[in-house]
Amino acid sequence: MVGGQGALSPIAALLYGVSIMCSSVKYNTRGPVLIPRMKSKHRVYYIALFSVVLLGLIATGMFQFWPHTIESNSDWIAEKRSVHDVPSLKLLPDSPIPERWDLSCRMHTCFNVYYCGFNPKNKVKVYIYPLRKYVDEYGESVGSMISREYHQLLSAVAQSDFYTEDVSRACLFLPSIDVLNQNNLQIKETAQALAQLPRWDRGTNHLLFNMIPGGPPDYNTALDVPRDRAMLAGGGFSTWTYRQGYDVSIPVYSSLSAEVSLPEKIPGPRTYFLLSSQTALHPEFRSELEMIRAANGESVLILEKCGNYSGGVLAQRKRCYKNAVFDYPQILQEATFCLVLRGARLGQAALSDVLQAGCVPVIMADSYILPFSEVLDWKRASVVIPEQKIFEVYSILQSIPQRQIEEMQRQARWFWEGYFSSMKAIALATLQIINDRIYPYAARSYEEWNDPPVVKWTSVTNPLFLPLIPPQSQGFTAVVLTYDRVESLFRVITEVSKVPSLSKLLVVWNNQNKNPPEVSLWPKIRVPLKVVKTAENKLSNRFFPYDEIETEAVLAIDDDIIMLTSDELQFGYEVWREFPDRLVGYPGRLHLWDHEMSKWKYESEWTNEVSMVLTGAAFYHKYFNYLYTYNARRHQELGGCAYELRRYRHELLSGQRYREGAYQGDSSEEV
């Protein structure tokens, strides 16, 4: 068609041509006119030709427009399918080598945040370099093939929300050069290969993953490959090589624990109290462990490599004690505490095995930076003891309450499932930590990093319904009311922050004429610290049900209570867990009727009886904050006397009170 109606499509034109051919056969009154035989052959030929072309066009159209999926999430994955055919890059002897590494690097000095740009989803974008084969001047390969573990790591990143194919949008660059295991590397050539990366720029915004650093005889705790400003996600950092806030300490992946499925075991007492399963221990460590076993009997099990297994997978999955053979890592589930000692390297794959088994790791490796310690609260899942106290380890562990041990067993298993169980888990946790640094306003909270899914956010349920039993592992929120005693306040914060079960610390700033100290002046603690400024100077502000209180347990403590230790506070919390409907505190008071004076008498001296517990240092359920605030506002008009009235109201409602004799070491009184 012409003249404004447009040309015919190829398929329409073909159909139009066929119809013309068919209509060209002449008819008369006696039927069709016979066509010569030669013309009939030509007609059949053309019809067949046009039919083939027509089918080809239809097939092409269906392929172009039919819905289908093509994996386009990474160039390197496509090249991985034909890894032997990837492009080669020659490294000459005089190829440039990066600087060793900059120990002073921090996010604000060596990371270019402007690469990240504006991102409405608050996600860093990671670009993975395509695979390359590096050869020397003679064409010989100078690098090892990519390992299975690094392939899994790159695959996880490429299939995540962090990945981008557009190098111009990338905030972080991930080389396809495998440096997980330094034992497999040629140091100089690997450094030259890094320097050849198109966007290297002294390693700015580049991330390297390494789990086995160093080598004999020094066994450095960080990767020896010169890397300039590149960030390092390393397994086995020490305090000397870890650049805080820049590098990321990651686990040493245990392929054994990933291959062996261990069902989760119910927390509780186990067959062995303390177990050691590492096979390459220093002789001094092993002799000291044998002495601990001799002193404590069969509750301690010291395993070693089996002599009748020469090597291979079978040798890795067996441990022996004298003539007894045990399956590994299954035997770890039979122990309450499992030792993780330093070897030639600080980072040990045994830590992953122990966590998977739900055994509480007892970590004795001085200066070791624990995996993901930037966000994970290891006090909730492990016991860290200095190496010099190895002979005291048994008595230290015996002092831990059984309920706390069970919480640590749950937390250990959760850490493994969330952050240790696969290369994918390790990779995504690393990127999330970096993401939180770049977008701090959208960072994960302490609870999101540390609370198992089973108990996460359970505290936001209706607070007017008191649970029959306390939650499993939420911890408590400390609420400190203060006015102007900053020095004393900071001492209280520092001491309370040492309590293992502390989940959050809330400071109620009751001074409307003076602002709180600057952020940089506050103590640096491991849990979230929130400051709430009140509109009026009321003593009752400490009992308001703030949204920041997400735990069931609340510790009300004055800003001048500096005599309580972290152990005493932890003990008080454990008692409250046994009696969550009671007021559990330290200073007790007594009210009684004075017959001579014919009036009530208030006794502050220590006696064998108490009728109320002061909330200057006491644990209670947050339900009573709601009750006090919304059902008993008249208390606020009574000033300081409201404290006593509130305590007595609490005790009348709960029917009971509980006092801790922490100040003078006396036995607790229950009235």
TrEMBL record:
InterPro entries: Exostosin, Exostosin_GT47, GT64_dom, Nucleotide-diphossugar_trans. The chain crosses the membrane at residues 6-23, 44-66. Keywords: Disulfide bond, Endoplasmic reticulum, Membrane, Transferase, Transmembrane, Transmembrane helix. GO terms for molecular function: glycosyltransferase activity. The keyword Amino-acid biosynthesis does not apply. Residues 121-400 form the Exostosin GT47 domain. It holds the Pfam family Glyco_transf_64. It is a single-pass type II membrane protein. It is found in: Endoplasmic reticulum membrane. Coiled coil: none annotated. The keyword Secreted does not apply. Residues 476-631 form the Glycosyl transferase domain. One of its GO terms (biological process) is heparan sulfate proteoglycan biosynthetic process. It comes from the Eukaryota. PANTHER family: ACETYLGLUCOSAMINYLTRANSFERASE (PTHR48261), EXOSTOSIN GLYCOSYLTRANSFERASE 2 (PTHR48261:SF5). Belongs to the glycosyltransferase 47 family. This is Exostosin-2. The lineage of its organism: Eukaryota, Metazoa, Chordata, Craniata, Vertebrata.
